[in-house]
Specification:
Helix 2 packs across helix 5 and helix 6 packs across helix 7. The model has no long low-confidence stretch (mean pLDDT 90). Strands 2-3-1-4-5 form a five-stranded parallel β-sheet, sandwiched between helices. Helix content is 57%, strand content 11%. The protein folds into two domains: 121 residues, Rossmann fold, CATH 3.40.50.300; 67 residues, no CATH class. It is an alpha/beta fold. It starts with a strand and ends with a helix. InterPro entries: Depp_CoAkinase, P-loop_NTPase.
Length: 209
């Protein structure tokens, strides 16, 4: 049975960077953000429901979901955010579970920003947290997405605190430095964890034989 490593961290922490380093080592990724895009792709029933609710202004010129426009709508309204979450979360969860069940690799990286908030840690054998300071989150996310800092701060406020996240962590990667300066250190840390996770997978499968 595939060993499941839950990878999480706050917005702007660099989860994608770390996940991609694992992917370079051949580790399969199940990424909640990727799945979230899949379930609302152009022509999907869920996208039709979102358009019916919010209007066509949340679509791009090519008819795809404009995630930035949608984000502004839901984070300014608790009721709208709840409506969207109630629509999308069950569909995303179902698709992620399907992808987890068909894995045959020694271990898989389960990349979920809201892993803790959505109580998905129970699906994991181990939790890896990408850790940065809150100020770093704010700076990176606002620069990356060209979003207002106020909106990014709202998103941070909806996520568990840094301390709560670290309490759940089995392993931590500190990604608070300049990536250009720490890339080799990050690669080394990922490689060490990769080898460790392979050992844990062997132990788990040995017990299940």
């Amino acid at each position: 049975m595939t060993y499941i490593i839950g990878l999480t961290g706050g917005i702007g922490s660099g989860k994608t960077t770390i996940a991609n380093l694992f992917a370079e080592l051949g580790v399969p990724l199940i990424d909640a953000d990727v799945v979230a895009r899949q379930v609302v792709q152009k022509g999907s029933p869920l996208l039709s429901q979102i358009v019916a609710h919010f209007g066509r202004e949340i679509l791009t010129a090519t008819g795809e979901l404009n995630r930035s426009a949608l984000r502004e709508k839901v984070f300014n309204s608790e009721s709208e955010k709840n409506w969207l979450n109630n629509l999308l979360h069950p569909a995303i969860r179902r698709e992620m579970l399907v992808q987890l069940q068909v894995q045959t690799a020694p271990y898989v990286l389960f990349v979920v920003p809201l892993l803790i908030e959505n109580n998905l840690t129970k699906l994991c054998d181990r939790v890896l947290v990408v850790d940065v300071l809150p100020d770093t989150q704010l700076d990176r996310a606002s620069q990356r997405d060209n979003n207002k800092r106020q909106l990014i701060q709202q998103i941070i406020n909806t996520q568990v605190s840094r301390n709560e996240r670290l309490k759940v962590a089995d392993d931590v990667i500190n990604n608070d430095g300049d990536f250009a300066q720490t890339e080799s250190e990050l690669r080394q840390k990922v490689l060490e964890l990769h080898q460790y996770y392979l050992q844990l997978s062997e132990k788990k499968n040995g017990r299940n034989l």
